[in-house]
Amino acid sequence: MGTGLGRRQLLGGLAIGAAGTTGLASGPWTSAPATAATTSGPLPDRVDVVVVGAGISGLTAARVLRARGAKVLVVEARDRVGGRVLNHHLRAGGVIEAGGAFVGPTQDRILRLADELGVRTFKEYVEGENVYVKNGRRSTYTGTVPPDPSILVDAALLQERINGMASEIAVDAPWSHPRAAEWDAVTVKEWVARQTLSTDTDTLLECYFQPSFGSDAGNVSVLFLAWFIATAGNERHVGTFERSSSTAGGAQDSRFKLGSQMVPIRMARELGDRVALRAPVRRIVQRDAWAHVHTDRGTVRAKRVVVACPPPLVLDIDWSPQLPARRRHLLAGMPMGNLMKCDAVYETPFWRKAGLSGSGLSHEGATRVVFDNTPASGAPGVLLAFVGGSTWRTYGRLPRAERKRAVLEGFAEMFGEQALHPIEYTEHDWTLERWTAGGPIALPRPGVISTHGPEIRRPFGRVHWAGTETSTYWSGFMDGAVRAGERAAREVLDKLS
Ligand SMILES: Cc1cc2nc3c(=O)[nH]c(=O)nc-3n(C[C@H](O)[C@H](O)[C@H](O)COP(=O)(O)OP(=O)(O)OC[C@H]3O[C@@H](n4cnc5c(N)ncnc54)[C@H](O)[C@@H]3O)c2cc1C
Ligand SMILES: [Mg+2]
To answer: Transmembrane among the record's keywords (predicted)?
Structure first.
């Protein structure tokens, strides 16, 4: 998910990593013929397993199943693979991402997979000072917290408390915590307001929420946040707020030189004609010994089905028999967040010469959370603003030209007038995507985890559930998507044998 608050800043005490070297670009910027090897002929009549959705999770499940000898077919609604992961090729050369991009330590499944596929990482740029804008006043700082003493105290306290709560949560069963119902009934906004000194802490908290969740602190429960943080680790390292959010050493430590979409593109190439694009699943009928998967390109019979599409989109499929009510309640209670990425491209990352990291936080305007999004080669220079939650509600509805102006003005306030004159401006609003419906992730509303949470991975007849939201580590991230795909494949292999 998301990319959380940024860098070594914000809510205090965030690990500040010193490091941050930009790696050298590897080889030519490969453009992405996502459709290259996929099948264009008629779909097979019958396979062992149909996988619904060619995002990272579905493709991972198919890759594991195929390696174990199962006959598998991935059916994908779009004319491309990758789902919430999408490369954007810059006019000046190089690649950035319109969707998921950052990876970091303990995300070992996506890192191993990328490594196997020859997709290399480079460190996010973190040298120099960060910019902080409040009440029209700009300041710079190094270290973890903006120069705002009242927030510093709040942040340290909040961070300690939420890490403490996270340490008590079972990543595979947050609903089983003795205080689950109580924590699930309180929104993070209410919880924070109760114990903080400064009202500015609320505003800054949104700089964590908006990019991470495409939503605001008033929309999710403390139980969700504690669980989300608990999952930001692996089997050996517990998740912490710092890990879920920081740049160096955290969830935004590194990016992929060829762009993150190269991971699903290469998986799809390996799978070849086992991937069918432009094949949205409309109906799934479970009858006799088979699941019948109806797509726009025909119907395929399978012994097992792995559904790996964003949770709310499962409800668009016509199910026979009908999905159990408890699963429908869960999915209806997990809408996608609202998020867009807005990038401005410059000949060079001019802010670096001025001693700035390219990272910024603001209490106002369109550019609440900003990162240096320059490709590995160091040029062209790219600034990225996450526009999510209530900021998206304000700026997402504006005509593109007005939003662009607001974003560039925000960049200029942080990094100088030069920011007003990009050589390219590009933006991606995930709420407009038919087959994603928002981003970065589906968010359970308060009360949903404690009441319907146990349904999240429960198979329905021959149907098993993948997708990052079903992961128990790094849920919401690309790493969680890989883990969920692997887990669903194991479930299916158990049943096939
Ligand atoms: C703007 C943004 C920024 C993000 N930043 C990061 C980040 O920095 N780091 C990180 O790790 N993660 C990030 N994420 C999250 C990350 O992208 C996701 O966790 C991950 O890609 C989800 O993979 P998935 O396979 O579970 O789902 P998806 O990628 O959503 O794949 C689901 C697939 O199912 C298909 N589909 C849907 N319905 C049907 C149907 N009926 N029939 C057939 N196919 C269907 C879709 O087209 C899609 O291809 C970000 C996401 C967004 C949107
Ligand atoms: Mg998928």
So the answer is: no
Which 8-state DSSP code applies to residue 417? G
Write out pLDDT tens, residues 367-414. Answer: 999 999 999 999 999 999 999 999 999 999 999 999 999 999 999 999
pTM of the model: 0.94
* CB 84 less than 6 A from any atom of ligand 1: yes
- The CA 438 to ligand 1 mean position distance, Å, reads 10
In the chain, domain spans = 46-84+261-323+460-496, 87-259+336-432
Angle, helices 149-168 vs 200-213, to 10°: value is 50
CA-nearest residue, atom 41 of ligand 1: 281
How many whole angstroms from 417 Cα to the centroid of ligand 1?
35
Give 147's pLDDT tier (boundaries 50, 70, 90).
Answer: confident
The response to whether residue 146 sits with its C-beta less than 6 Å from ligand 1 reads no
Task: Tell me if domain 46-84+261-323+460-496 and domain 87-259+336-432 are identical in fold.
Answer: yes
Q: Which residues are annotated as a binding site for substrate?
A: 386
Ligand 1 pocket member 387 (CB < 6 A): no
Using CB atoms within 10 Å of the CB of residue 223, give its burial: 0 to 12 exposed, 13 to 18 middle, 19+ buried.
buried
ipTM above 0.90, yes or no: yes
List pLDDT tens digits, range 216-227.
999 999 999 999
Measured distance CA(332)–CA(382) in Å, rounded: 37
The CATH code that applies to domain 87-259+336-432 is: 3.50.50.60
**What atom in ligand 1 is closest to the CA of residue 252?**
8
Q: Is 244 helix (H, G, I), strand (E, B) or coil?
A: helix
Q: What is the pLDDT of residues 38-51, one digit of tens each?
A: 778 899 999 999 99
Domain 46-84+261-323+460-496 is of which CATH architecture? 3-Layer(bba) Sandwich (3.50)
pLDDT in tens, 432-467: 999 999 999 999 999 999 999 999 999 999 999 999
Please give the annotated binding residues for FAD, written as ranges.
57, 76-77, 281, 469
- Name residues whose C-beta falls within 8 Å of residue 120's C-beta, 6 or more positions apart in sequence: 23, 26, 114, 256, 257, 258
Q: Is 438 a pocket residue for ligand 1 (Cβ < 6 Å)?
A: no
Is the shortest distance between the CB of 280 and ligand 1 below 6 Å?
Answer: yes
Question: Could you say which ligand is closest to the alpha carbon of residue 53?
Answer: 1
Q: What is the C-alpha to C-alpha distance for residues 464 and 62, in angstroms, rounded to an integer?
A: 13
